């Protein structure tokens, strides 16, 4: 099952017939495996990694370090939930170290992101401090090198 | 081209004149005219050398490692090679006397032949096989004797087949498993029979195990010198090109008894001096920390192997399911084409490059070699194109 997951993680659009050949299983079996993995929420969603900058969009990405005062009973979870429900928030991690939450935000402009942090995030009860870092250039995302120019340098035919 | 006034060809060495030119040149020239060629004709990994291995070489350069090394190679590399054989095959080699680091297996094969062959000595070579086996034999003054392997026997060779070609001049048996171009492997049982044969005729066995790490399915690679009594009479050749995707580094080695190793070292020290230090440093890193990257590449080759085997079989081409290396060797004789015609017509019509089986020995005729050391997407597309070709081209 791990091999199937790794193949899908790398390319979710691979035809079932190909997957079946590569894994030495029947197509029916592979389809059933995938359905089960989806049902059990092991496969959560199928996304596409897009180079929006190349497409022409000038989006702004910021990483916000947030310090919190933990709450009785629920610790950080309740505040984290209040934060991750915003659409602008792409990623939320609970961290060890000098801050508590790492929040990744995408917006159309610097102003929009700054506004969101100032008006939405820092005003949440329990948030004691925020520090924003704006992303300047992505080199690698989710295992994919953004401007990968590695090409086949081999001779066309060799013994 | 330069005009030559004298008959220079008559001044060439007989050895060079005896060697046939490479059969794949023609395909280069045709492929060069096209910009959408999918090549299944490449005999090397499509992966780039894993980054930690490359990085170790960069670091070595920064530290100023740019000198010669000992003729036999860096002591730490020879030790790592010995450790590798101890750990994986339980064979004990002495780093001081039994190891020679070479410029790829190609050099190792050349100097092994030159170290042991007298003019007229015969070398048994199971075919189909790698293209330089015959040439290296001839250049060293030996006589290559082809022993055809059969698809019915999964391209393995048997003592009975070898016996048919033994003469009193037979000195060497040269085997290469996992095999390029067929993808065949030899099981322990198969090899034990070959070992008896070598013993009976007192042959030196040169075992080219460059694809030894690339086997699939249940059968694991058996190192020839690990067989009872065989270590002393075996010259074991291996390198880093295939398992660690390091073809361009040109780094390999020979393992043999101290006398044979010293003889090969003699030639090596006067002709090559030593293998490049940059490649030797990278090879140390490959043996120390490269295994997980190698395993990952092998798993990927295995998936591609199943995909291409399924694809070709479904088209109705007779195939032996390869068990090692990264080649598949389908029989295309049902199309009515010779291997050469098939390869040329396919390239012209569908822009898929592969290598005619006849390049690997006369008994390879009727087959073509497809390398699956290329991405899944390209293999899929190549399969579509080959299927298309088969539909439209029946002779």
TrEMBL record, chain A:
It comes from the Bacteria. Residues 64-137 form the Transcription regulator AsnC/Lrp ligand binding domain. InterPro entries: Dimeric_a/b-barrel, HTH-Siroheme_Decarb, Tscrpt_reg_AsnC-like, Tscrpt_reg_AsnC/Lrp_C, WH-like_DNA-bd_sf, WH_DNA-bd_sf. It holds the Pfam family AsnC_trans_reg. Signal peptide: none annotated. This is Lrp/AsnC family transcriptional regulator. It comes from Selenomonas ruminis.
């Amino acid at each position: 099952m791990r091999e199937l997951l790794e193949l899908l993680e790398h390319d979710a659009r691979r035809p079932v017939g190909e997957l079946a050949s590569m894994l030495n299983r029947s197509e029916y079996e592979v389809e059933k495996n995938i359905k089960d993995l989806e049902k059990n929420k092991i496969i959560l969603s199928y996304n596409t990694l897009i180079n929006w900058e190349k497409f022409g969009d000038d989006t702004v990405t910021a990483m916000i370090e947030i310090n919190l005062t933990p709450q009785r009973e629920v610790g950080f979870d309740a505040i984290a939930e209040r934060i991750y429900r915003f659409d602008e928030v792409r990623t939320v991690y609970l961290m060890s170290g000098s801050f508590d939450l790492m929040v990744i935000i995408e917006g159309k402009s610097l102003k929009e992101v700054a506004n969101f942090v100032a008006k939405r995030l820092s005003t949440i009860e329990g948030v004691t401090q925020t520090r924003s870092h704006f992303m300047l250039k992505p080199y690698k995302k989710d295992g994919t090198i953004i401007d990968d120019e590695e090409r086949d340098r081999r001779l066309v035919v060799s013994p | 081209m330069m005009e030559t006034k004298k008959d220079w060809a008559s001044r060439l060495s007989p050895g060079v004149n005896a060697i046939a030119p490479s059969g794949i040149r023609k395909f280069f020239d045709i492929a060069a005219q096209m910009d959408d060629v999918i090549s299944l004709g490449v005999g090397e990994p499509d992966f780039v050398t894993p980054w930690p291995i490359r990085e170790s070489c960069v670091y070595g350069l920064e530290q100023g490692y740019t000198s010669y090394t000992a003729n036999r190679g860096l002591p730490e590399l020879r030790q790592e090679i010995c450790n590798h054989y101890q750990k994986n095959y339980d064979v004990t080699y002495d780093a001081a006397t039994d190891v020679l680091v070479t410029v790829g297996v190609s050099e190792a094969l050349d100097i092994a032949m030159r170290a042991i062959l007298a003019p007229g000595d015969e070398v048994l070579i199971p075919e189909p096989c790698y293209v330089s086996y015959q040439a290296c034999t001839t250049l060293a003054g030996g006589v290559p004797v082809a022993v055809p392997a059969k698809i019915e026997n999964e391209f393995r060779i048997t003592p009975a087949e070898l016996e048919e070609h033994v003469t009193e001049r037979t000195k060497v048996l040269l085997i290469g498993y996992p095999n390029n171009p067929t993808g065949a492997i030899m099981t322990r049982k198969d090899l034990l029979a070959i070992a008896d044969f070598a013993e009976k005729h007192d042959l030196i066995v040169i075992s080219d195990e460059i694809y030894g790490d690339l086997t699939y399915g249940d059968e694991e690679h058996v190192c020839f010198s690990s067989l009872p009594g065989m270590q002393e009479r075996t010259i074991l050749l291996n390198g880093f090109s295939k398992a660690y995707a390091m073809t361009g580094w040109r780094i390999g080695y020979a393992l043999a008894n101290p006398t044979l190793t010293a003889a090969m070292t003699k030639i090596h020290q006067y002709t090559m001096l030593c293998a490049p230090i940059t490649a030797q440093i990278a090879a140390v890193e490959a043996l120390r920390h490269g295994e997980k990257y190698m395993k990952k590449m092998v798993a990927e080759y295995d998936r591609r192997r199943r995909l291409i085997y399924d694809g070709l079989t479904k088209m109705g081409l007779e195939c032996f399911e390869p068990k090692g290396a990264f080649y598949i060797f389908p029989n295309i004789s049902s199309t009515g084409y010779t291997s050469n015609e098939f390869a040329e017509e396919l390239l012209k019509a569908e822009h898929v490059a592969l290598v005619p089986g006849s390049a690997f020995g006369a008994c390879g005729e009727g087959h073509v070699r497809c390398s699956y050391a290329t991405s899944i997407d390209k293999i899929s597309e190549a399969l579509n194109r080959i299927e298309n070709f088969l539909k439209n081209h029946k002779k």
